[in-house]
Amino acid sequence: GQNIDQPTEMTATEGAIVQINCTYQTSGFNGLFWYQQHAGEAPTFLSYNVLDGLEEKGRFSSFLSRSKGYSYLLLKELQMKDSASYLCAVLDSNYQLIWGAGTKLIIKP
Amino acid sequence: GAVVSQHPSWVICKSGTSVKIECRSLDFQATTMFWYRQFPKQSLMLMATSNEGSKATYEQGVEKDKFLINHASLTLSTLTVTSAHPEDSSFYICSAREETIEQYFGPGTRLTVT
User: Fold this and answer.
1) Are B45 and B100 in contact (CB under 8 A)?
2) Residues 37-56 of B with CB under 8 A from A
3) Whether B100 contacts chain A with CB within 8 A
4) Which of A60, A89, B7, B9 qualifies as a FRET site for B94, CA 20 to 30 Å off?
């Protein structure tokens, strides 16, 4: 079966750095997405990785290792507004998104 | 660019009635649209995938006669929840994709069935 694992909840301090991990086992791989979702709102796109390595975009970076079935989202200089759920999703061989359950990130002052 | 709208943003209806939710791609042609449902504190659950002009493909466990999906044009898809019951209360989100792989999400519709 297809499976995506990410921690249920993480807590971090404002101004710090946090890394949210995601491991996956899917039928085929056409890329991995990270989305941010605030409570009561739809997901918003953060990043897309299809090749191994680190993609940096401002305070957010995303890393992928296809051989390990592993990705992480790195958030730097955390702000209170970063409190949200972060969803990892893999595009499988049928170009269908397989979603993780999401990681709720709590930022404390 | 790549904006997807949904209407209504929230709706309250009585048990047994039907509710229609519209999803529109405003500035691109969506060859494929997706409908998701999300219960509180849970992740997105794909309900169905629809391609313009063809029947929707429903995920296992989703009743196609209860959740009617119509993708009549490249910019519009509708989801009709027929004979709604309180357990259908949820956050319904659509997304749209053109020729690229990225899905663009609508803002979601919160349905409450009383």
Assistant:
1) no
2) 42-46, 49
3) no
4) A60
* Residue B99 at interface with chain A, using a CB cutoff of 8 Å: no
Q: What is the pLDDT of residue B2?
A: 82
Confidence (pLDDT) at B1 = 64
CA of A23: how far to CAs of A36, A88, B33, B85, B105, in Å? Answer: 17, 9, 27, 36, 24
Q: How sure is the predictor about B54, in pLDDT bands with cuts at 50, 70 and 90?
A: confident
Mean pLDDT over B13-18 rounds to: 96
A30 touches chain B (CB under 8 A): yes
Pairing status of strand A44-49 against strand A97-99: unpaired
Distance from C-alpha of A55 to C-alpha of A48, rounded to nearest angstrom: 8
Query: Torsion-angle region of residue B66: left (phi > 0), alpha (psi -120 to 50) or beta?
Result: alpha
* B2 interfaces chain A, CB cutoff of 8 Å: no
Could you identify the residue written with the tokens 């609508």? Answer: B106
Read off the pLDDT of residues A74-104 as tens digits, 9 standing for 90 and up: 999 999 999 999 999 999 888 888 899 999 9
A30, A43, A102: residue with CB nearest B101: A30
